[in-house]
Structures are given as C-alpha cells and as structure tokens.
Amino acid sequence: MNTPNVGGGMRQRSSVFGKLAAIMLAMALALMLITTGFFIALVQPTLHKQMSPITAHAWLLVLSLLVMSGVVLTTQAVLTKLLRPLRVLNEGVTRLGEGDLAVSVPRTTTDEFGTLTDAFNRMAGRVREMITARDRLLVDVSHELRSPLTRMKVALELMPDDVQRARLSSDVAEMERMISGLLELERLRAGRGVTLVRQDVVPIVRDIVTSYEDRPPGARFTTTGAREVFIEIDAEQLKTVMRNLLDNAVKYSLPDSKAIAVTVETREDGARIRVADDGVGIPREDSERIFEPFFRVDRSRSKESGGYGLGLSICKRVMEAHGGAVAFEPGSGRGATFVLGFPNGVDTSVP
Questions:
Q1: pTM for this structure?
Q2: Model pLDDT for residues 273-297, shown as the tens digit of each residue
Q3: What are 234-240's contacts with CB under 8 Å, separation 24+?
Q4: Assigned CATH for 123-189
C-alpha cells in the first residue's frame, strides 16, 4: 500500500501482515533446507557407511527441534516488537477513557499500526477540541447572562410585593445559582479554585455531618484507626463537596432509609472519606456519567427530583484540584456510596 510523502511523491509503507508472512516463509524455508540436507547427506556413501538410518533420523529430529525452537523464539521477539505500538495504543485508549484529554500516542512505525496511531491522535484531538469548546460555550453564556439577570433583579425590586414577584425572584435566584456553579467549574478546571493548607480533616467532616443529624434519615460519623488525619486540603471546598454529597443522600432517601454513614479512613495510599446512604440508588448504566455537567438520572429534569446536575461535577473538579478523585460505588440493592480519595502524605494520630 502506498502513501504520499511530504515531497509529494509516494513511498512504500510496510505492512504488519507482510512481516508476519515473511516470518512464516522463513520458518518454512528453514525446515525445508534441513529436510533436504538430511536426505542429500543420507544418500552419500561415506555418510551411509558411518551412520545408521536410526542415528540419522535422530540427528534430523534434534536439528529440526533446534531450528524450530530458534524460529519460535525469533518469531516471539519479532511479534513482541511488532505489537508494541498496539500495546502503547491500548494504554492511550485507556487513558482517554479515564478522562485524560491530553493523551497523545507517539507513532513509531509506518505500517497499519502507525496509521491507526495517527487516527487515534486525530480522534483524541477532536474530542479535546469539542469538550474545550463546550466548556468555553458554557462559561461564555454564563458571563453573558449575568447582565440581563442583574437588570431583572432591579426590575423585580420595582414590582409590587405579591405572589408573582416571589415566583420570579425564585426563578432568578435559581438561574444565579446555576451560573455560579458553571463559573465555579471553570475556576476549578483552571486550577484557581483551591488553596491547600495542611490541616486535620476529621473535625471539618464531623462538623458538617453534625449539621445533618436532625435531617431525616439522619447522619452518623466514624473514623477508622486514627483520631487525627492531616492532609493538604482547602477546607471550604471540602465542605462544599461534603454538603453536595449529603444533600443528595438526604434528597434521595426513602422513608425507611438508614442513617447516612460518613467515615474517615486512613490507608497506605492516602486518606479516604466514605459517604454511604440507603436511598433509591443510581442505576449502573448511569454510573459512568453522573459526574458530567448537567447530567441527571431523572431524564424529565423535574425540579422536584433534583437540581441542575452540577453538584457532582463540582465534587469531581474539587477532588482533582486536590490531586485526588471521587468514585462512585453502587450498592448491591439500593443505596449508593461515594468515596473521596486524597493522595499520600497523610499524618495520623492513633488514639
């Protein structure tokens, strides 16, 4: 197969299938040469007098096994080298699937794998451009909406104090909260949203959980193995994450739900904050999309069943800004568990 080069001509591109065919041909030729050499030597009078047919066949078997072993080992080495671009490409696909939009796979061959690598890099670049354009659009629209919202608030102040004014004021306040959430997402994405300070995470989480103890189904706080857990955190942003998770747990609880369990854990690879509820849960088919902006399990987007779909997106951005991650663990039946993972560098005090 030919492909144009930079100078406008054509250059021959190597083929993986051609290389595999060459290996198989080399193996067949080697075996053919050994077999032919054996029969030629066997009919020679001098060799025929010195070596019996049984010995000759034994030598043929040994030589065949040695040559086949050599060919197999050589084939394995060649195939390992040939398939290395495929392994690198697989790593790139995995990173892209995990959300690493900056992934780029180097092209090291001029065969079909090289063409596939180019196609993957173009696809990753296009995905990166589309997501960047989407985020930019959301931010631009949010900025543009601020001016008309300000004018609407001024106009509302001039309206008589009645039911209609209260309804409009509530709608404007909802829009302001949504716009603030979008702008907060952009700040966090740009790395300007957190100020990390080394402090004990236990009292911060305990205070947040305490404020939810009187809200059905209630909440309880525990620690495992440590009384103090010092990590690099932004306390206000951590409180925002905890409130988002606890608000969701309360909102989607059932009349017979158990209390929300919040646990601070210390592990070898860092600290974990686990928030487990006993509510309606999240369908498994939606578990990979719940951290996307504006995604909601309720497709009707009813106000009674949820907010704007920004809370978990903000949680994800906050945790990434901390160098950690937030993960969702579906329950076996109902309920859901969210785990906040903070990186290493944890100082603990065991009671």
A1: 0.63
A2: 999 999 888 888 888 888 887 787 7
A3: 234/193, 234/194, 234/195, 234/196, 234/197, 234/318, 234/321, 234/322, 235/197, 235/199, 235/204, 237/193, 237/194, 237/318, 237/321, 237/322, 238/201, 238/204, 238/205, 238/318, 239/204, 239/208, 240/314, 240/318
A4: 1.10.287.130
